[in-house]
């Protein structure tokens, strides 16, 4: 089967570009990467038809010379599906931005926790070692040690705060997503209290 | 009888339309539609399974286009069994979620979105089971995935969006890989119809065949969460609501296994990549179960056991003998049920004890004896204690391994034994920590709502403005017994009640009983799976049914 080289080359370039974009952190870039890669793969599907022929119509065209319509149908299906997924990803990127202020994809919580913990504990142990090794401890030294210690603890705490912020903006969907005004909260809470007695 | 084949797909799709049309205004009607349609799908699936068993595969050409061109749906024994088990499980989970939704006054799970998405998920899963060509399989996957995106990020809370983004990106990537594989298959063989591919693929050069096979297996391994491609699962599944996690864990991974079985038997017989599959199976089993040993969060723990037990089914597929396929099919049916049940029980435990964290749970055996029974039976079933179906499934696989006698097979048999012992250890750990030991000191009395007790360092000023009033951060006291109150615990909204809603308990009990039914009916069932395996290996009935007319 002969194949159009330019079609294939375009598909490869699109897939490469999209693939690189998909490896980045922000969801919007991943989204762009997905769209570009999707287009590249659709071209690949189309290139499976072989050489171009006449339009695949039933009448008026000699049957041997028409283009194979099946890959076109497959590509069309794939385009529709990509569209839907893109819409969903966009909504998710926006929601992520709403909740955390960025649309970056975060690491696995536990991975990050383990990594950070190991790092901080390592640094702390190093610090302690250094501190113990010194013989004449001046007041300045001690203050520096404490400041460093505090900094390490603050890092762990900041991480927890970040997680908590992501978590705690949960609860009532309609208030969070649709952004009802604060008065509603008050009224709603009163209503709830009344209901539960 | 053949006309029944598309119905498990069509009914839920039509019901989705109705469900969306009536929406929130007639919430009760919406619930009624979902339950009625899923019950109908269950009956249909049983009918299909019996018919496929009696008269061989059933196929229907949609729009009456002849097979290589048109869309063909096929239901053979394997499809029938998968449809039956999946619809039974989805029905149980639906009832469970109805119980939960009604008790929580629909705050956490807005039902208007839940029901249509759930029905579409069922339609997608059914479509993958009856799809007769690669493109239709792809479409089925996508229907299922888009619905699962919605269900996984239900409510749009922080952790769900975070976990959902990983899941969506991985799924997107595997879909692209799938589409590429389809393009390659079509370019090489000129068809995407399974039956025609089964005829044409053996004539292709070996390299092309292996490439297509490897790509398809990679795609399905991502869906099935086989070890090197499973890192996304323990991070994304546990954040969803309990019923959603249950149905995902039970069904979606098994869809990947079903596709592997179908492709390995129908398109690429001869087991060229068997050794690779067995190596991957061994890695899945051991890494998965070791991950589970290290976890203390119940849902994450079950996610790791899920990965580990996927290894058993891949082991069966890698052996590729009739007994092995039979064992794998039996194990799939058993595992769908038991894994779903365990996640449902995890939801009940969370509801009762206020948390899924094993270190904070305790004393549940005395406080909730029924819950203890509901956990104990599927847990022992899962670990493979003799009279139960987990044992029968494992025994079947191991006998197939011993009969094979190769080095890999023996290694896998040893690995499977160790894994099942470690599973027993993990289940015993859960039992000891959550149920058997005394209530840990400082534990609030049951029936109270546990406040968001994150950390002592929580007084971070950055946190202040982000707190939203009315989400349970303030003013939560002990709730009257039997009354549901929402609060956030470790960031998740958790409702604790002294007695979970009857529908939830009943649905879980139903799932437990279904698991036990596999034990009681083990004889007929193993005979059935054996016949399915024979049919898969023979290939002729399938091909003739599709192309013969």
From TrEMBL, chain A:
Gene3D superfamilies: 1.10.287.3510
Membrane topology according to the record: Multi-pass membrane protein
Positions of transmembrane segments: 73-94
Source organism, top-level taxon: Bacteria
Any one Pfam family match given in the protein's UniProt record, by short name: Oxidored_q2
Alphabetically ordered keywords of this record: Cell membrane, Membrane, Transmembrane, Transmembrane helix
Localization terms from the record: Cell membrane
InterPro entries the UniProt entry points to: CPA3_antiporter_subunitC, NUOK/Mnh_C1-like
Membership in a protein family: Belongs to the CPA3 antiporters (TC 2.A.63) subunit C family.
Name of the featured protein: Na(+)/H(+) antiporter subunit C
Organism for this UniProt entry: Streptomyces mutomycini
UniProtKB/TrEMBL annotation, chain B:
Compositional bias segments (type: Acidic residues): 454-463
Keyword Transmembrane helix attributed: yes
Region (Disordered): 454-481
The NADH:quinone oxidoreductase/Mrp antiporter transmembrane domain, residue ranges: 131-417
Domain of life: Bacteria
UniProt keyword annotations, A-Z: Cell membrane, Membrane, Transmembrane, Transmembrane helix
NCBIfam families assigned to the protein according to its UniProt record, in alphabetical order: PRK12665.1
Protein name stated in the entry: Na+/H+ antiporter subunit D
Biological classification of the source: Bacteria, Bacillati, Actinomycetota, Actinomycetes, Kitasatosporales
